[in-house]
Amino acid sequence: MKIFIDTANLDEIKELASWGIVDGVTTNPTLVAKSGRSFNEIIDEIFEIVDGPISLEVVSEKADDMVKEAKKLVNKISQKFRKNIAIKIPINPEGLKAVKLLTKEKIKTNVTLIFSANQALLAAKAGATYVSPFIGRLDDIGHEGMQIIEDIVNIFYNYDIETEVIVASIRHPIHVIEAARIGADIATIPPDVIKKMVKHSLTDIGIKNFLSDWDKVKK
Ligand code: E4P
Fold first, then answer.
1. What's the gap in Å between 81 CA and the centre of ligand 1?
2. What is the CATH classification number for the domain harbouring 157?
3. Which one of 121, 151, 189, 215 is separated from 160 by 20 to 30 angstroms, measured CA to CA?
């Protein structure tokens, strides 16, 4: 399973990329706002740090405007990084039209705010490169978010659909394990969850004991 990092915070992206575990990045307007930097400032740097798919979201509401905004974003990115851009489009009728048009122009899309397998199926039919089902937000309202991941992965498998499934809105390390068990293509994970994934109290104790025993060895 590929690991994308779900943040627009450049320090976090740099740090986690240095661990060698980041295959891509997803951002959204909320994450960009949280970063406290301007969108233009951030995007160039993200593309410099991570050589993998980077999702940037459009905020237009009509299909034609989404397409214009997407093309503007693509043109902002220097030629050598353009292969990595994926335009995030919300799932609704206008979003589907935009995905169809962008796919025709060979621009990658990540259809976001997916909360059902039917939405994912329609996005894939329209030509989406990625779909992003938000499991944490479903859990928040008492639904079993991971169930739709299982459904989408099975449906895409049944019909050899090439659209990749990005498990999004991940809240904790168990979500990551469940996504991997199901066989999702990608999990986009917030930095704090990645940091929890690497931790284990027995590892910390083990390192501490090895170091103190090493001190007792005659040198
Ligand atoms: C994914 O692309 C989204 O940016 C993200 O996973 C949303 O997560 P949230 O529900 O924690 O805001």
1. 24
2. 3.20.20.70
3. 189
Distance CA 169, CA 147 (A): 14
Choose one of 26, 134, 138 to mutate for the ligand 1 pocket test, by most ligand atoms within 8 angstroms of C-beta.
134
The span from the CA of 71 to the CA of 101, in Å, is: 11
Q: How many domains does the chain have?
A: 1
Q: Which of 118, 129, 122 is CA-nearest to residue 97? A: 122
Q: Which of 112, 137, 169, when mutated, tests ligand 1's pocket best, judged by the most ligand atoms within 8 Å of its CB?
A: 169
**Tens digits of residue pLDDT in 103-135:** 999 999 999 999 999 999 999 999 999 999 999
- 181-196 pLDDT, tens per residue? 999 999 999 999 999 9
pTM over 0.90: yes
H or E stretch at 150: helix 145-158
Expressed as residue numbers, the domain containing 129 is 2-218
Residue 165 in tokens = 């499934």
